[in-house]
Structures are given as C-alpha cells and as structure tokens.
Fold each of these.
Amino acid sequence: MQATTMAIEPTLAILSGKGGTGKTLLSVNLASVAKEATYIDCDVEEPNGNLFFNPTQEFGKLVTVKKPVVDEALCDGCHKCVDFCAFNALALIGKRLMIFDEICHSCGGCIHVCPQKALSEQDRAVGEMSIGRSDSVRSISGSMNIGESSGVPIIEELLKHKGEDLTIIDAPPGSSCLVTESVRLADFCILIAEPTTFGAHNLAMVHELVSLLGKPYAVVLNKVMEGKNPAEEFCIKNNIPIIGRIPFDKKLGSLNSVGKIASREEKHYRELFASILSKALAKVNP
Ligand code: SF4
Ligand code: SF4
C-alpha cells in the first residue's frame, strides 16, 4: 500500500504601506474563510490579530536572544571588542567596558575577538510569543518588549512555528527589515491599499519592496467607493492585478472596530473574502 503525502499549502503575506489600511481586517478574514489555516501576526510592535480571534491559549514562551556580558576581573581594557563591533554597541569608559544591549545585534563577534576570554553570552528576553486556536484558525502571535531596537528575532521565532497548512502572514506596516523578514517564506504577497493619493503613495512603496524581493503579488483595494481611486490608477498604470475590492461599508467598519470578524458574522462578507482568497490561491497555483 502506497503512503499518501499531504501537500504543503501556500503561504500568503498581507502587506500595506502604513498602519490602519485594512491589513489585519483582510488577514483575519482570509484565515477565517479557509477550511483550516494558520494566522501569523508578524506586526510585533502592535499585534492586534488576537483581539479578533480571541484564541484559546495552547502555548506561550519568552523570546530570548544572546547578549554579551563582561567579566570585569578578566577584562584589561584592550579595546579589541570595541573596535570590532560594527553596531557601536560597546564602549570603554576608562578601563570599564559598557555594553548597550538595545543596539547589540547578537552577532557574537566580540566574544571571539576578546584575547582575555572576558566576554560570554547570556540569554536576554526581547519579547514573547504565543500559539492559540480560534475555530479552524491556529493563531500565532508575538510582541516586542518596549525599548527593543528590533523585532526580527521575534518574527524569526513566530515563523519557526509555521505548519504545512494554508498560512496567512499579517506583516508589519511599511517596508522595513521587519517586513522583509515577515515575507521571507511567503509564496505570494497581497498588497492592500486605500483609495487616496496617500494610499497610492504607500502602495508604490510596498510594490517596490515586493518587486525587489522577487515575490509574486496582487492588490486588494480597500474602502472602495464611486469616483477617482489613485491606488487603482497606480495598479492599471503598472499592470498590477487587482484580486479584490472591499467596499466602503459602515457595517464592516463597525464590526471591525469592535473586534468582530465580518466573515464569521455575515454570509455576504464570507463570500467577499472567500472570493479574494480563491483568486489569490489561483495566482499561486495557476
Ligand atoms: S555581539 Fe556583536 S553586536 Fe553585540 S556587542 Fe558583540 S560585536 Fe557588537
Ligand atoms: S576585548 Fe576583552 S579584554 Fe579587551 S576590552 Fe574587550 S572585553 Fe576587555
């Protein structure tokens, strides 16, 4: 008898040029209309996907990174580690070594160059992550501690828990290194944009990023109403496929503002988001 192998489902990343564009609205609804899905909230500076899913907690842990610590009894103030650190995370005040944890990138180099073996690594928490379940959605979320310079280690940890089912990644807004890390495993990117000149400008920014990363992509237009839509004009001018139009709709806005997932509330929203999901999946597997 032949063993059956489960196919790995695609990973879709949802991006926007700025916060408040409808990225989480689209992400949670796409995950909710799938038969089974994993939702990963990579917006670790402002995670709000779980406000919608309100999942039952299954797993949680601190996210730690390695940071150097100095044994002052061994350090002779030779300056080699300070000269080595490309991030200026080390300084010698007289013969006393100062380590600025928040800007240290945990490369470990200073430990290797120290001739006195005065430096060693210690785990330090930079945030936390959790996994929970809400109906057919497994929700993975993380948050960064206040004052940390980078959420990349937390995003790396979240992505380690990605399964083989359909995965929806709610990326951080903008086009920073956090976004690049969030879309690393994505098979397809969906860019969401508002119908304003500023919306078109933000769309151009994320469009440039996904083009540079060589990721296939399409656009969903949000808050669509009658009249001029600069974001749509940008898509037409640049030959970018539009796979969905979410109308400007007070009911949808009010459901969203109280943390309700529209596609779980009303059939026509379910059909709207199911249609967007099916068009995105058709682009991944034409
Ligand atoms: S681990 Fe790397 S980044 Fe951090 S202080 Fe040492 S050399 Fe600098
Ligand atoms: S390289 Fe080692 S001994 Fe030299 S200043 Fe740095 S910690 Fe001290």
Amino acid sequence: MSKLIFRRRSIRKFKDEPLPDEAISQILKAAMAAPSANNVKAWHFVVITKRELLDQLAEIHPYGKMLKEAAAAILVCGNTQKQSVTGYLYMDCAAATQNILLEATSLDIGSVWLGVFPREARMLEISNFLKIPETILPVSLVALGYPAEQKPINNPWQAEAIHYNKW
Ligand SMILES: Cc1cc2nc3c(=O)[nH]c(=O)nc-3n(C[C@H](O)[C@H](O)[C@H](O)COP(=O)(O)O)c2cc1C
C-alpha cells in the first residue's frame, strides 16, 4: 500500500483514450471506502465523461486546463442534509478524494485534484453548470485519464513538520 501512496503524483497530461466503466466503478468504490465522520457518508460523486462538458469545465476552472485532455472527471460533493457539520462534510469529501487518487494510481490511471471548496465563486459556477442542488456542496474535482507524462516517485521528508510529544 505505501508504494501506492508514493507513486501517486498529480498528472496533468492525458492520452486521448477513454476509461473503462469498470475502472470508474472501482475508483468510486474506493472513494466510498473513505473514513467518514459519524459514518454518515454524505458524499455524492458526479462523473463527467462527455467531451463537451469536460471542455467547458476546463474553461470554468482557472487551474483546470488539463480537463481538455482528461477522459473523465469526478466532482466530489457533500450533502448538507445528511451531515449538518459542514467541516466534517469537507473532511469526508477530502478523504474520498484522496482515495480516488490512490485507486486511480493503482489502475495506472493518471489523476489530479482540482480545488473547488473553499473558492465560493468557483463552487457556485460549477454547481450552476452541473445543475447541483443548493443543499449539495461541491468540494473537489478530480481529472482522470491514462497518463501522457511520467513523474518521479514522491519522496517527501519534512523533518521540520514533525514534533514528538510537545511542539
Ligand atoms: C486542495 C487541493 C487543491 C488543488 N488544486 C489544484 C488545481 O486547481 N490545479 C492543479 O493543477 N493542481 C491542484 N492540486 C494539486 C497540487 O498542485 C499537487 O498535489 C501538488 O503540487 C503536489 O504535487 P503531487 O500531487 O504530484 O505530489 C490541488 C491539490 C489539493 C490538495
């Protein structure tokens, strides 16, 4: 498992090749296996595969130009009617997003997390575009596709970020 974590990198160049439905299902299943506060699992996943929609999302998201090449994208959203503590909703969705990235990596599918929350204008624009109900908060967008770039293994070690027992 840890090999997978270190292999995951943000991929922003994709081959012009669709993803099999089974791969998308497997990625969604991994998302739903994420930890969830009170185990309410108040997430929703909008899977976008239509070329026209992906191209338009690339225009809407200021740092999402790679969506023009992506085979698919998943918008991870939280349902405020199921989880009223929005802080928890965002954390659950972040955990689900990370699972999406890791499962994609395990399938040799490239992925990149595109921030949506907490950029309010971006959240609104994406919600309007994809007809997301008002009670559903869009949290993150993941671009997916077979990679057309290779990146070295992630090898981080930040000694300054570690504190034993006391700060
Ligand atoms: C909350 C969040 C928002 C991000 N938003 C974007 C984005 O809008 N566009 C993008 O290209 N990458 C985005 N990224 C990816 C980061 O740039 C990337 O994870 C970071 O540069 C480290 O590279 P790595 O993922 O290859 O380890 C985002 C990552 C996170 C966690």
